[in-house]
Write a structure and sequence with these properties.
This protein has helices at 27-39, 67-77, 88-97, 106-109, 112-122, 139-151, 179-187, 197-201, 204-216, 243-252, 264-299, 307-324, 328-346, and strands at 16-20, 44-46, 80-85, 101-104, 128-132, 157-161, 192-195, 221-225. It has two domains: 16-257, Alpha-Beta Barrel (TIM Barrel); 262-347, Chorismate mutase (Chorismate Mutase Domain, subunit A, Up-down Bundle). It has an eight-stranded parallel barrel with strand order 1-2-3-4-5-6-7-8, surrounded by five helices. It has 13 helices and eight strands. It binds phosphoenolpyruvate (PEP) and manganese (II) ion (MN).
C-alpha cells in the first residue's frame, strides 16, 4: 500500500485531530459543537448520523436529515466533515449531500460481507475513509477490511484504534490491547493510525491519559468525542468532553515523538511498552479479584492464607515457566511478590510493604 494518500490534502503535520459529538442530535447542537471544535484548533469534524447501537431502543441517530447540518458546519467553519457509514445506501446519501469523508464503525469492520459492499459502493470516489478496528482483537480482520477498500481503488485511508470488547471486567469500556494497532502498523507501515480514547475509556476522566499514551506510542492522531453539553448527550454521554475541555486537552498533550522512522528498535520498544501496559492491567485486575475473595472469606469466616493453595499455585507457575522457557527462579520470585500483595489486598491492609521506607 505504498501509494496511500493523506485523508485530506491540507492535513498538515501529525498529529491529526478529529473531534465532534458521538451523534448529530439537532442543527443547533451540531453547529455549536462544530464551532467549538474549530475554536479548539481542529480541522476535521465528526458527527454520527446513523448510530449502531448495541441494543434496540437506544437513540439510533437522526439519519439522512442530519446530513445538511454537517454540510452547514463545513461551510460556516471551514471544517472537513465526516460521519459513519455502514451500508451502500448510507454512502450514496453521504456522497449526494457533499460530506467529505466517512468512518466505518467497529461492528461493521467485523463483517467481511458488509465491508465488501461498502468497498464496492466507494469505488471511483476519492473521499477520506477511516476504518475503526473490529470489535475483537483480530489484526487480520482489520487489515482485511482495509485491503478490501484499497482493492476497490480507495487511497485516502487511515485506521482508527478504538479498543476491543472484553468479557472480563476492565477499567476501560473497550480494552486497548495496544499490541494490535502496533502489529497493524508493522504490517502496513504507510497507513496512518489514529487512536480514539473516548471509545476506549468510556469515561471522560480517561480521555486525556489515553490520548497521551497513544501519542507516546507513536500514533498519528486522535479521534475525540466532544459535545457542547455532554451530560445531556443522547449517546455516549459519559465519555464526551466539552469544547473547552477539548482545547485544554489539545494544549496539554506532549509530543514526545521523534520523527517517524521505520527502525526496528522503535517497533520493539513500542511492543515492549504495550506488553508492560497489559501486564499492569492484568495485575490490577488480579488484585481486584483478590479483594472480592477477601470479602467472601470474611463473610464465610474463612482463613485468608491457605498454604496448600499457594504451594499449588507456585508449583503450577513453575511448571508453566519451564514449558515457556522462562527462568523458574524468576517466576518463583514474581509469584511470591504477587501472592504477598494479593494477601494484603484480601486482608484489606492499607499499609504498603512495598513502599519506600
Ligand atoms: C462512534 O464513533 O461513535 C462509534 C459508534 O464508534 P465505534 O464503531 O468505535 O463503536
Ligand atoms: Mn460514540
Amino acid at each position: 500500500m505504498k501509494d496511500i494518500k493523506p485523508l485530506f490534502s491540507d492535513c498538515g503535520a501529525a498529529p491529526l485531530y478529529i473531534a465532534g459529538p458521538c451523534s448529530a442530535e439537532s442543527r443547533e447542537q451540531t453547529l455549536t459543537a462544530a464551532c467549538g471544535v474549530r475554536d479548539a484548533g481542529i480541522g476535521i469534524f465528526r458527527a454520527g448520523v446513523w448510530k449502531p447501537r448495541t441494543r434496540p431502543g437506544s437513540f439510533e441517530g437522526v439519519g439522512r436529515e442530519a446530513l445538511p447540518w454537517l454540510v452547514e458546519a463545513k461551510n460556516l467553519y471551514g471544517l472537513h466533515v465526516i460521519t459513519e457509514v455502514a451500508t451502500p445506501e448510507h454512502i450514496e446519501q453521504v456522497l449526494d449531500a457533499g460530506i467529505d469523508g466517512v468512518w466505518i464503525g467497529a461492528r461493521t469492520t467485523t463483517n467481511p460481507f458488509a465491508m465488501q459492499e461498502i468497498a464496492e459502493a466507494l469505488r471511483g470516489t476519492d473521499i477520506a475513509i477511516l476504518v475503526k478496528n473490529p470489535v475483537s482483537p483480530d489484526v487480520d480482520l482489520w487489515s482485511g477490511a482495509i485491503e478490501r477498500l484499497y482493492n476497490s481503488g480507495a487511497r485516502r485511508i487511515a485506521a482508527v484504534h478504538r479498543g476491543f470488547t472484553t468479557y472480563d471486567t476492565s477499567a476501560y469500556r473497550n480494552t486497548p490491547h495496544w499490541s494490535v494497532p502496533i502489529e497493524l502498523h508493522r504490517r502496513l507501515p504507510e497507513l496512518a493510525i489514529l487512536s480514539d480514547p473516548s471509545h476506549i475509556g468510556g469515561r471522560r476522566s480517561l480521555v486525556a491519559p489515553l490520548a497521551q499514551e497513544a501519542l507516546d506510542l507513536g500514533f498519528d492522531g486522535l479521534m475525540i468525542e466532544c459535545h457542547p453539553t455532554p451530560a445531556t448527550a443522547l449517546s455516549d454521554a459519559a465519555q464526551q468532553i466539552t469544547p473547552n475541555e477539548l482545547r485544554t486537552l489539545r494544549e496539554s498533550l506532549i509530543l514526545r515523538r521523534t520523527p517517524v522512522t521505520q527502525d526496528a528498535l522503535r517497533d520493539f520498544r513500542l511492543h515492549i511498552d504495550s506488553l508492560d501496559s497489559r501486564l499492569m492491567e492484568l495485575l490490577a485486575e488480579r488484585m481486584n479479584v483478590a479483594r472480592d475473595i477477601g470479602a467472601y472469606k470474611r463473610e464465610h469466616s474463612m482463613a485468608v492464607v491457605q498454604r496448600e493453595r499457594f504451594n499449588e499455585l507456585l508449583l503450577a507457575a513453575e511448571q508453566r515457566a519451564e514449558s515457556l522457557g522462562v527462568s523458574k527462579r524468576f517466576i518463583h520470585r514474581i509469584f511470591s511478590a504477587i501472592h504477598e500483595e494479593s494477601v494484603r489486598q484480601q486482608l484489606d491492609i492499607t499499609d504498603d510493604p512495598f513502599a519506600e521506607k
